Amino acid sequence: MSERLIYIMASSSLGILLLSNLIVEAWAASFTQDFDITWGADRANILNNGKLLTLSLDQSSGSGFHTKNQYLFGKIDMHIKLVSGNSAGTVTAYYLSSEGATHDEVDFEFLGNLSGQPYILHTNIFAQGQGNREQQFYLWFDPTANFHTYSVLWNPQLIVLYVDGTPIRAFRNLESKGIPFPKNQTMRVYGSIWDGEDWATQGGRIKTNWTAAPFVASFKSFKANACIWSSRKGASSCKPARSSSSKFGWLSQDLDSSTQDTIKSIQQNYMVYDYCKDTNRFPQGLPLECTLVNY
Ligand SMILES: *[C@@H]1O[C@H](CO)[C@@H](O)[C@H](O)[C@H]1NC(C)=O
Ligand SMILES: *[C@@H]1O[C@H](CO)[C@@H](O)[C@H](O)[C@H]1NC(C)=O
Ligand SMILES: *[C@@H]1O[C@H](CO)[C@@H](O)[C@H](O)[C@H]1NC(C)=O
Predict the structure, then answer these.
(1) Residues 6+ positions from 214 with CB-CB distance below 8 Å
(2) Fold of 3-292
(3) Is the Cβ–Cβ distance between 77 and 222 less than 8 Å?
(4) Residue 117 gets which letter from DSSP?
């Protein structure tokens, strides 16, 4: 078992990536080893020998965690079970982000609702500090009944968000058209739960009902088929997760037509909001990427 893929990012010539030397390492994620609880103290708990992490929100605080590692590209999966019952006002977030004012970020945010009413999956993509790329979806299942898999594919050409393996949104590298793409900043994986009653549920009309607190969301089976940044080496090494059949396929994956067709059909059937259709919000014209791609 020793092939290693080293991804070297020459900081002097951004965008020039050298591949050398492949290593395949079996690697099983453990919340104890691979994550830090960053806020909320004992509202965040690692259980079952590092296999399960729960986050809770009460009236005084939410809670959160992030990976110890920073990644530069990856196929990253997390299994999440959301707050059940009356979750109105709560926001459970799972995202990739770099740091600083011109940061990159890829967001999954789950907006709670009254019992029996549907969650909204709110997504956004920031490149060099600029977001405003919200797309929202209903899910085709009850996300509070079981764990479901939420994934991000992030490579130099493409970002794709998946729900249980179904692609729901893509963001292409259109740097050649002058649109920034997340490519030169390493990101950590974050999870958190917080009170978003000002905006989350039915546009902020439904507030959090604290009699139902604490609100608990659960995370398990984190898998990062990813390139891990090492500041010592000034490079990132790409390690596939255990039991991955595709190894490094994700690194060169492009947007094929079946992925585009699936995204189109998900967007037709489940989309709640699309910034690319919000002409009132962008009176000077839709963002350029909206006019360049149609999926
Ligand atoms: C990434 O590239 C952009 C320009 O393409 C630059 O403004 C930014 O400072 C770069 N960030 C890093 C961390 O190198
Ligand atoms: C909550 O339920 C209402 C009524 O079904 C729906 O309009 C709304 O989109 C749902 N989700 C959120 C997050 O508000
Ligand atoms: C909050 O939940 C409790 C318990 O279900 C309920 O009795 C109460 O009416 C709710 N409060 C509001 C403002 O909806």
Answers:
(1) 43, 56, 57, 58
(2) Jelly Rolls (2.60.120)
(3) yes
(4) S
Residue 245 CB contacts under 8 Å (≥ 6 apart), including other chains = none
Mutation choice for ligand 3 from 205, 207, 211, 215, CB with most ligand atoms inside 8 A: 211
88 CA from centroid of ligand 1 (Å): 38
Distance (Å) of CA 170 to CA 55, 167, 259, 290: 28, 8, 9, 12
Neighbours of 48 (CB within 10 A): 9
- Assess contact for 72 and 8: CB atoms under 8 A: no
Query: CA neighbours within 13 Å on the CB side: how many for 9?
Result: 22
Divide the 295 residues of the chain into consecutive groups of 10 and give the mean pLDDT of each group: 34 33 45 96 96 98 96 94 98 97 97 98 97 98 98 96 98 95 96 98 97 98 89 71 62 92 97 97 94 74
Separation of 63 CA from ligand 3 center, angstroms?
24
Can you give the residue ranges of every domain in the chain?
Answer: 3-292
Please provide the size of the chain in residues: 295
Q: What is the pTM of this model?
A: 0.89
What letter represents residue 53's amino acid?
L
Contact between residue 176 and residue 294 where contact means Cβ atoms under 8 Å apart: no
Helix, coil or strand: residue 249: helix
CB atoms within 10 A of CB 146: 9
Instruction: Give, as one character, the DSSP assignment of residue 205.
Output: T
For 181-216, write each residue's pLDDT tens digit. Answer: 999 999 999 999 999 999 999 999 999 999 999 999
185 in contact with ligand 1, CB cutoff 6 A = yes
